[in-house]
Amino acid sequence: MAYWNKDEFQKIADSDDLHVSPLRDDGVTFGTPTWIWSVVVDCALYVRAYNGKASRWYQAAIKQINERIRSAGVTRDVAFETVDDDMNAAIDEAYRIKYKGSRYLAPMVGAKTRAATLRIVPR
């Protein structure tokens, strides 16, 4: 099992520039990086698809095993894992704190987006 480098993880946690690149259908080529919001809860990194489960990057992330993220000068191969609903309240609160004042916050803690919550784990 891979672990986060403590310094890299902190840079990612503090940053607002996380980009995800799931593998394309060919299983070799990484897709175009998509900028998404990320939050940390209990030392784990979470993301949500703004357009819910219909988002292309979300569909690719669920389908493919290997993904890549870029944030704060860090590039890391990762996997995405679905999240149990019992984590969503804490993840909502993390979004409210980190993105307070953003006009996009309300949709990010809405039902459609909550249903598309993923945990990012290093590979």
CATH homologous superfamily placement = Electron Transport, Fmn-binding Protein, Chain A
Radius of gyration, Cα only, in angstroms? 13 Å
Given this structure, which CATH class is correct? Mainly Beta
Query: Which consecutive residue ranges, at least 5 long each, have pLDDT under 50?
Result: none
Q: Per the principal axes of the C-alpha atoms, what is the gross shape?
A: globular
- For the record, the CATH architecture stands as Roll
Q: How many strands in all? A: 7
Q: What is the CATH T-level topology?
A: Pnp Oxidase, Chain A
Taken in chain order, the helices and strands follow as: HEEEEHEEHHHE
Percentage of residues in DSSP E strands? 25-35%
**Number of helical elements:** 5
* Overall domain count: 1
Query: In angstroms, what separates the terminal alpha carbons?
Result: 7 Å
As laid out across the biggest beta sheet, the strand order is 2-1-5-6-7-4-3
Main sheet overview:
7 strands, antiparallel
The proportion of residues forming helix, as a percent range, comes to 25-40%
Q: How would you characterize this protein structure?
A:
The protein is an alpha+beta fold. The chain has a single domain (6-122), classed as Electron Transport, Fmn-binding Protein, Chain A (Pnp Oxidase, Chain A, Roll). 29% of the residues lie in helices and 28% in strands. The protein is built from 5 helices and 7 strands; from the N terminus they run αββββαββαααβ. Strand 5 and strand 6 form a beta hairpin. The protein is globular. The model has no long low-confidence stretch (mean pLDDT 93).
